[in-house]
Amino acid sequence: MSHVLDLTQEERQAQIVEEAERFAAEQIGPRARVFDEAGVLADDLIQDMATRGYLTANFPTEYGGLGLDPVHYGLFQQAIGKADCSTRTLITVHSALCGESLLRWGNKEQKELWLPRMAKGEALAAFALSEPNVGTDAKSIETRYRKVGDTYVLNGNKKWISFGDKADLFVVIAGNDQGQISAFLVERAFPGITTKPLKGMLAGRATHIAMIEFDNVEVPAANLVGNEGGGFTYVVSTALDHGRYSIAWAGVSIAQEAVNQMGSYARERKQFGKRLAEFQLIKGIIADATTETHAARALCLKAGEMRKSKAQDAVMETTMAKYYASKVAMKVATDCVQVHGGNGCISDYPAERLFREAKMLEIIEGTSQIQQEIISGYALRKYTKACNQ
Ligand SMILES: Cc1cc2nc3c(=O)[nH]c(=O)nc-3n(C[C@H](O)[C@H](O)[C@H](O)COP(=O)(O)OP(=O)(O)OC[C@H]3O[C@@H](n4cnc5c(N)ncnc54)[C@H](O)[C@@H]3O)c2cc1C
Q: Is the pTM of the predicted complex or chain greater than 0.85?
C-alpha cells in the first residue's frame, strides 16, 4: 500500500516538473534576453509563478508550497534555469536561501507569518550576508547589532544582495561586540534602510542586485531567527547548503542549454560547403560538452537522493556537485561561444548570455576555491591512511 502511495507521490512530483518545463520554455525562455537587457524581472511573471506555487516549490503544502522533495526540486530548478538564469536566481534566494533558513530555524509565529506570504509572492525575500569588505571570510562581517530594550538596532552595509533592490523581507546576518553572529528578519519598511542597485554587472543583470545600508534600524526582538549567536553556525550554514544545491542545478541548466544551442547552431551553420556539425573537431566539442553535462547532472541527482534520504555526507556531495557543475557550466558555455564563432560574441544569440551567467556560478554561494578547500578537507579525512602501515 505504501508502495502505491510512494509511486503516486513520485508521479505527482514528476508531473509538476514536466509542467514547469513547459511553462519555462513557453513563458520564460522567450523573455530572457529582454529581462537581461532591461535589467529587470517582470512582475507579471513573478505573480504568475506565485500562482502556480513555483516561488516556493520546496515548501510543504501547509505553507502554500508544492512539497517537492530535493530531487524534484532540483529538476524543477533545472527547468527554470534552462530558460533564464535571473528567474532561477529569484527562486534560489527566495525559496532556498531564505525559505529553507526559515523552515529550519524560524519559530512557529515567524513561519506562520512569512511562509504563506512568500508562497503567494506577497513578500519577496533576499539573503544579506556579504559586505563591501567581507565575502569569503564571512565570519568577519562588520554589520553590527546591539540590543536596546525589546529591539535590536542594526548598523552597517551589505553588498551584492540578489533581489536586494526588490525584496520586501531580508534575512540579515550581523554581529555584536561580544563576537556573536545572529540572523534577523528585517522588513524593507523599517525606517533606516536604503537600497541602491548595482549597475554594470557581468551577470545576474535582472536580479535587482543591490547594496543595502542599515542606519540605526530597529528590529523587534521577535524577528531574531533561531538563537542569538547561532546566526552563522545554524542559519548561514543552512542557507549556504541549500543555496549550493540550487547553484549546482543552475550549472547543469546552463550547461544543458549551452549544449542545445551549440548543437542547433552547428546543424545550421555552413562553412567550406558543409555544416559545422560535420567537422570532426566540432563533433569532439559537442561530445565532450554533452558527456560533462550528463556527469554534472548525475552528481546533482546523487546529491539530491542523499539529501532526500538525509544521508550523512549529503552536504559534502552537494558541495562537490556545486563545484563540479559550475565548472562544467563555464567550460561548456565557453565551448558554446566557440562553436558560434563571432555570433557567440553578440547578444543576438543566447551563447553570450550563457557564458556570462556561467562565470557567476563559480563565485556565488562560495567561490570554487573555497569549495576546493572544503572538499579537500573532506577527502583528507575520509580517504587517507598512514603511509607506513
Ligand atoms: C552575481 C552575484 C550575486 C550575489 N548574491 C549574493 C546574495 O544574494 N547575498 C549575499 O550575501 N552575497 C551575494 N553575493 C556575494 C558572493 O557571495 C561573494 O561575491 C562571494 O562569497 C565571494 O566573496 P568576494 O566577492 O568578497 O570575494 P573575496 O572573498 O574577496 O575573494 C576573492 C578571491 O580570493 C579567493 N579567496 C578568498 N579566500 C580564499 C582562501 N582562503 N583560499 C583561497 N582563495 C581564497 C576567492 O576564491 C576569490 O577568487 C553575490 C555575488 C555576485 C557576484
A: yes
